[in-house]
Amino acid sequence: MANTPPNKDDKKRKLGRGLSALLGNNEGFAATTAAPSAPAAPAPGNVPIEFLRPGRFQPRRLMDDGTIDELAKSIAEKGILQPLLLRPLPGGAANEYEIIAGERRWRAAQRAKLHEVPAIIRDLDDRQTLEIALVENLQRQDLSPLEEADGYQRLMDEFRHTQEDLSKAVGKSRSHVANMLRLQGLSRSVRKLVDEGRLSAGHARALLGIENPLDLAKKIIKQGLSVRQAEQLAKSGMPGIKLKKTPPPKDADTLALERDLAEILGLKVEINYKPGKGSLTIHYKSLGQLDDVLERLSNKP
């Protein structure tokens, strides 16, 4: 029997199951991830627009005014077809809510001069909020490559998820997650070109590991090179293109030890080893964290 490509509905159900694996269930997200035969989500209520606040965990950094205007016109004609997902605003008043999914709909509703929006309200913690916001945007393919990479990195940094966890949550392969995370190593000038849509994620990855990536990036854009051509050019060591010396990958035992120490200290830990010597680096963000580490190290049995 011939294989048929998965349709969008299949992909959404896969994403929903992935989110369920992380959260334990998909309650409160059923409006966007449930299969047609699943029980209906609770009926949303209407919430005044002025009670809503943008989400702190919104993975999207760029919101195009043109697309929001188009959405506002659609909302003015047909209304909001999918309710927003909210949670009570942490530290806010009793009638204030944080937007978890649907910020573009909220902004467009204001331009359409609506006074209320349909919404589902759920009590969710910060981890669940970030995970849902990331998956919801990935379902709609609303995130740029760098926004997607930044979202993955936040989940790993703030909630200690592994790449395997993330691949299950968003319905992507582990190699896809790993490749997206590699974009974190791009220079600021190249990141700007990716954000502007002038370079694809594939082109950007070809620029990793060279000392002057902007020169090659400009050449790729000017000549309209394919990703394959960009990779070949980067590897060829063309005049002016210098390859960085990359350290060899760490072995599994070292990586496991880094994870164990990070779990104990609650901080990022790096172990670097060369024959006959090595170094242990503990990363902290505040003096309070440093004091905690020093206190742990000074305690005697």
CATH class of the largest domain: Alpha Beta
Give the fraction of residues assigned to helices: 40-55%
* Total separate domains: 3
Strand numbers in spatial order across the main sheet: 1-5-3-4-2
Poorly predicted runs are 1-6, 11-43
Largest sheet: 5 strands, mixed
Global shape: flat
Euclidean distance between termini CA atoms:
67 Å
CATH topology of the largest domain: Conserved hypothetical protein from pyrococcus furiosus pfu- 392566-001, ParB domain
**Rg, Cα atoms, Å:** 23 Å
| Annotation, overall tally of beta strands | 7
Assign the structural class, choosing from mainly alpha, mainly beta, alpha/beta, alpha+beta, or little secondary structure.
Answer: alpha/beta
Query: What is the mean predicted local confidence, pLDDT?
Result: 77
CATH architecture of the largest domain: Alpha-Beta Complex
* Proportion of residues in β-strands: 5-15%
Number of helices: 14
Element-by-element helix/strand order: HHEEHEEHEHHHHHHHHHEEH
Can you characterise this structure?
- With 301 residues, this protein is an alpha/beta fold.
- The chain folds into three domains: 156 residues, Conserved hypothetical protein from pyrococcus furiosus pfu- 392566-001, ParB domain (Alpha-Beta Complex), CATH 3.90.1530.30; 51 residues, Orthogonal Bundle (Arc Repressor Mutant, subunit A); 47 residues, no CATH class.
- The chain has 14 helices and seven strands.
- It has a five-stranded mixed beta sheet, sandwiched between helices.
- It is flat.
- The termini are far apart.
